[in-house]
Amino acid sequence: MARLLAVTIIVIAIVSAIPVIMHTWEAPADISTHGQMIDDQMADTMIEAGISFLAAQILLALFIWKSPSNKPGPEGKFKVFPGGAKGLIIASIVLVGVEVLALGAFGAKAWARVYFTPPAPDAMPIQAQAGQFAFYFRYPGKDGKFGPIHPELISEATQNLFGLDPEHDVEARDDLVAAELAIPVNKEIHLLMHAKDVNHSFYVPALRIHQDFVPGLDLSVHFTATKIGKYEIVCSQLCGLGHYNMRAYLEVMSPEDFDDWQKKQEAAQ
Amino acid sequence: MHDKPAISTAPAVVHGPPTTFISKHVFSLDHKVIGKQYYALALVAVLTGMVLSWLMRIHLGWGALAIPGLQALSPNGAPGGVMTPELYLRIMTMHATFMVFFVLTTAPFAAFGNYFLPIQVGAEDMPFPHFNMMSFWTTFIAFCVLVSAFFTSDGPPLSGWTAYAPLSAIGKDTGPGQGTGQVIWAAAIGIFCIGQLLGALNFISTVLDMRCKGMTMKRLPVTAWAWFITSCMGLTAFAVLMPACVLLILDHVAGTSFFIPSGLVINDQLVPHSGGAALLWQHLFWFFGHPEVYIAIVPGMGIVTHVLVTNMRRPMVSMKAILYSMWALAFLSYMVYGHHMFVSGMNPFSSLVFSFPTLMITIPSTVLVLIWIGSLYGSRIRINAASLFALGFISMFVTGGVSGFFLAQPSIDIMLHATYFVVGHFHMVMGVAAIFGIFSGTYFWFPKMTGRMMNDTLGKAHFWLTFVGTYCTFMPFHYLGWAANVRRYSAFTDDYLKPLIPLHQFITIAALFTGAVQLIFLYNLVHSLFRGPEAPANPWEGTSLEWIMPSPPPWNNFGGKDPVVYHDADQYGVKTASGADYIMQNSPEPSPTGC
Predict the structure, then answer these.
(1) Contacts of A55 (CB under 8 A, 6+ apart)
(2) For residue A252, what are the β-bridge partners?
(3) Can you give the pLDDT at residue B2?
(4) How close, in Å, is residue B145 to chain A by CA atoms?
């Protein structure tokens, strides 16, 4: 029975690894300037974790396989692991310790690329607002300034989704509000995030961007999309019964198409 | 070293024998009865949690399928038997709450720990038996309070077991169950914390003050160490979660704003709160939440080590390394909680500070795995249901552990946060591995706890089907996570998620199969309880003190005689005068290893 267990462990380990090696299920392809670093880090981690997983399972299976045939020596003692505990502890600290610290150091670079680099001065500011269960996006208009949000004026009934007061706030008069995030390709976007009610998240797998909306906190992310197309923005932070259905689209356009889109939005509002 | 002087007083007589049915079986002061009560509670909770998980999985695999009887149970939540998104989230919340609190905390720690810790240290009972009794009944009340959420007009909450504020703090306007249901949830968890704090205090003082003559700390069996370490973690972790729950309730009922900032708008109405911090809940919750992972798994590590040593008939290559590793895990568990919050809006520099200790956890974890595997080298292990589950635990712990490599790194968390990869990771390492520890402990200690043997053939069948079934269920979660499948969705309507539905259906079939297999265990448990062959005092030829007494033990454990200990619990593979290959801890026979 020990040998059956050894074989089962090996079979499970190999079968588990096959979809990973074959790339059977993968995230949407990256369309960002920073995503390659994240993908590389993921691939490196996959190799190191994969080797650790297979090595540990194979060793476990091997020793279980050999267990029934192990016999005591002349003094009635069974063989102990060569080098004893010291070798095992040193292997853990040196091999795994170095491995994970290296992963941590390289991973920190990728993290810094996303979070420690400030947005370029000419990055396009867009405000995203998340509320149960929709995203809305606001563009500052020609003056380049957002009108302030007045929470008491926020109303879906009157479609004042950002609580703007154009009567008193000059900056708010040319703000554009849209239900989709339209952006020009190869242009850095500085996304300012506002939570209307509870926690939400801005997760665009294709863009390799993931950031929670937290009520009361002014958070932002910045990114550059490199491929024209339509991509899904999903909420990943449980926000209520409609959480699964809270989504919007990221439309990456050519600069010309983006100008046309803006003009249409201005005309419509 | 059997002449080592005793370091503590002999066990005191802490209570008399039970005199009535109530004092013997209900409000018992006997740690063994309390241990069994905890086990029974965990069994009810795990069955409830498992049925809830079946409902979730059926819905995720075939969302439009009408589930027979569901409409009768929840007319509004399942019109025509088809689950609504809100019912899905309520079921998910309750499944996780039952499993994490009332199964993974109670069974390996409170149930087995209560039963065996005093015995293993050579005590007649715990030092505060009334607190111990209160600990169980407080936990039982917490369970009843939680279950009552099903029967209120508001229903159970839908904010998940993590109950992130302000969704969990504002009240009924944020969704069904978020009013009374959420308050009931917070009250239940707060009460649960009180029960566990009472238990942890008792466990710690039992180890420090109740050891019998000769039972030095060095001679404690590894399980006693595991429960001691877990108690130390529990004392700190539950002491933080309990006030957090009180603050959450106050936000609901007293108009405070601990977790609610100003300017929030729900249903076009300004929420009348200001000044709170939404992230405060996450900090408090995860300060408890990460140690909770180790509260669930460390007792399993102790049980698995104990079972393996007994069945390998020789000590681990280094028991010291195992103990230091468990302490290291406990210590590090308080320094890493921020890895649950990498993309939550915390200062991004903090993420790196939390990332490195998280990666360091890999080191003690690897030491544990390599010591277990290295100890198997050259040994001839006895194969039985308990040892199979112990070996299965190692395999599961490795699989769940390596996925931690990914989640410890903030850059990768950008892709994997809140996806099924996280679900796969914690189900493997905290769920399945811990439950394999519980199964291993059950098959190992059932004879002592009941005086009857379990059927080993059924136990082995249970192992094989569960081992394959759990891998088929939880391994694919990792693939879903790599494909950016967000968790806590009641349906997958996004274009990039639709191709993943067949994989969800496969998981559902595997989960139903694995759940059904547990009927073998239940049958074996119940049948053996009444019809199993009578158990000898020491069926596995163990060395620790639980095996020196009859099965089941008398109310006062050692029959009023104080045991004296001469060795540690690792005296296996030795030559003795009687021809046995082990020396029991209370045997004055000299040990060749001199321990």
Answers:
(1) none
(2) A183, A229
(3) 42
(4) 23
Residues near A219 by Cβ (< 8 Å), separated by ≥ 6? Answer: A192, A193, A211, A212, A213, B345
In whole angstroms, give the CA distance from residue A222 to residue B419.
Answer: 22
Q: Nearest-CA neighbor of B178 among B43, B48, B86, B77?
A: B86
pLDDT given at position B594: 55
Neighbours of B556 (CB within 10 A): 17
Q: What angle do CA A67, A69, A71 make, to 5 degrees?
A: 95
Residues with Cβ within 8 Å of residue B254, at least 6 apart in sequence:
none
Closest listed residue to residue A132, CA positions, set A243, A244, A216, A234: A243
ipTM, two decimals: 0.95
| Touching A: B residues 527-566, CB under 8 Å | none
Given pLDDT bands bounded at 50, 70 and 90, which one contains residue B12?
A: low
Number of A–B residue contacts, CB under 8 Å: 314
DSSP per residue, B214-281: T--GGGS-HHHHHHHHHHHHHHHHHHHHHHHHHHHHHHHHS---SS--S--EETTEE-S--S--HHHH
Any idea which of A75-79, B83-87, B288-292, B449-453 has the lowest mean pLDDT? A75-79
pLDDT at A78 over 60: yes
The pairs formed by B274-280 with CB atoms below 8 angstroms and a separation of 24 or more are B276/A216, B276/B165, B276/B166, B276/B169, B276/B251, B277/A216, B278/A199, B278/A214, B278/A215, B278/A216, B278/A217, B278/B164, B278/B165, B278/B166, B279/A214, B279/A217, B279/B341, B279/B344, B279/B345, B279/B346, B280/B165
Tokens of B349: 């520099």
Contacts of A79 in chain B (CB under 8 A): 377-378
Cβ contacts of B405 on chain A, cutoff 8 Å? 45, 48-49, 52, 100, 103
From residue B347, give the alpha-carbon distance in Å to each of A116, A127, B147, B178, B344: 10, 20, 38, 29, 9
pLDDT digits (tens, 9 = 90+) for B163-172: 999 999 999 9
pLDDT of residue B22: 87
- Alpha-carbon distance of A119 to A143, in angstroms, equals 19
The full 3-state SS of B280-347, as one line of letters, equals: HHHHHHHHHHHHHHHHHHHHHHHHHHHHHHHHHCCCCCCHHHHHHHHHHHHHHCCCCHHHHHCCCCCC
Tokens (6 digits) for B493: 């309507």
pTM attached to this predicted model? 0.94
Backbone phi and psi for residue B260, each to the nearest 5 degrees, phi listed first: -120, 110
Name the token pair of B401: 């552990």
> Is B266 part of the contact surface with chain A (CB cutoff 8 Å)?
yes
pLDDT in tens, A10-63: 999 999 999 999 999 999 999 999 999 999 999 999 999 999 999 999 999 999
- Cβ pair A108, B412 in contact under 8 A: no
CB distance B398–A8 less than 8 Å? no
Cα distance between residue B296 and residue B188, in whole Å? 19
**DSSP sequence for A132-160:** TTEEEEEE-TTTT-PPPP-GGG-BTTTTB
